[in-house]
Amino acid sequence: MSSVNTPATLLLSVIEAAVQAPSSHNTQPWLFRLRPDTVDLVADRTRALPVNDPDDRELVISCGAALFNLRVAAAHAGWATTVEIRPDPQDPDLLASVHLRDGAPVEDLAALLEQVERRRTHRGRFDDEKVAANAVADLREAAEAEGAELHLLEADRRVDVAALVAEGDRLQFADPRWRRELAAWMHHRRKGDGLGVPLLALPVTRLVLSTLDLGASTAAKDRDRVDDSPILAVLSTDDDSAEEWLAAGQALQRLLLVGAGHGLQGGYLNQPCQVSELRPRLRSLIPGGRAPQVVLRLGYPAEGGYPGPRRDVAEVLL
Ligand SMILES: Cc1cc2nc3c(=O)[nH]c(=O)nc-3n(C[C@H](O)[C@H](O)[C@H](O)COP(=O)(O)O)c2cc1C
After folding, report:
1. Contact, 107 vs 118, CB < 8 A?
2. Given ligand 1 and candidates 16, 20, 24, which is best to mutate, with the most ligand atoms within 8 Å of its CB?
3. What residues does ligand 1 touch, defined as CB less than 6 Å away?
4. Which of 60, 83, 132, 139 could form a disulfide with 245 if both were Cys (CB 3.0 to 4.6 A apart)?
């Protein structure tokens, strides 16, 4: 196995693709260390969400999504990759090392690069159109390829999950610490991270979020979101370790990119995973006692969205 020529510009384009990954509250909790022929993925826990995500579970899932984009972009650049998954008790922030080498890149990964820009979190309505059976099969296969499972919820289970989402909305908004944390991640779009808000609306948005309990109205809105989602699904892993969270993130991003190739976009209804007392109840609704990691709605968007802001690559390099 020979080492490869890794020109800096090509490497930077790989990192540029990695940072297009989704992350909770758009915290972008990742850093990258460039070494000869290797990129290390490091968790940036200064960007953690201690109230929303006390165990850094979603933080690691977000890093897993960035890792998958990195693999896609490296394959597109012509590199074969070997991923060393690393959570190491001596260095718990080093999550993975991606070794770049000569050899045939994985073609089906390379082909996903064009979806990296197209994928975005969809918070609006979906068309009524049913998702084609071959697209559903591809989504499931994408999750499985990364060691996770995607469970599509049928009518009775949907009602149960919708009730958990509504309960999650009420519990989260009832907690002033949770509201303040959300308000703190409402940023002006030009800042490059957080949930982008127009500059003039920012003070009012922050004030409303941090002082008012919007639990009931958010729950009602989320019920409508469930009703208009052609697919409501839970992404699960065997277990609940940092390795599994990283796998969940890679599975999430793989299925979102594969979905984008079919014209699908995804949105999140993660409250039942985030609120600790609801997670066991969600777990009981999916087969095999597996660990639920993400609740997703998927469909063909009825209206366009806009891309979330991102920080410059220079800010994520160690
Ligand atoms: C693990 C994870 C959890 C997320 N949870 C939510 C959520 O509960 N609600 C939501 O609207 N978006 C959620 N998001 C989406 C992020 O807010 C979104 O990725 C970020 O704002 C960047 O926007 P983009 O995905 O359009 O690039 C989540 C994303 C990830 C990776």
Report:
1. no
2. 24
3. 22-26, 58, 61-62, 65, 120-121, 123, 195, 268, 270, 294, 307-308
4. 60
How many angstroms separate the alpha carbon of residue 26 from the centre of ligand 1? Answer: 6
Report whether 18 contacts 304 (CB < 8 A). Answer: no
Q: Which atom of ligand 1 is nearest to the CA of 25?
A: 17
- Are the C-beta atoms of residues 96 and 41 closer than 8 Å to each other? yes
Q: For residue 1, give both structure tokens.
A: 């196995």
The protein residue with its alpha carbon nearest to ligand 1, atom 14, reads 24
Q: Which amino acid is at 176?
A: P
Record the tokens describing residue 198, joined without a space. 């127009």
For the entire predicted model, the pTM comes to 0.96
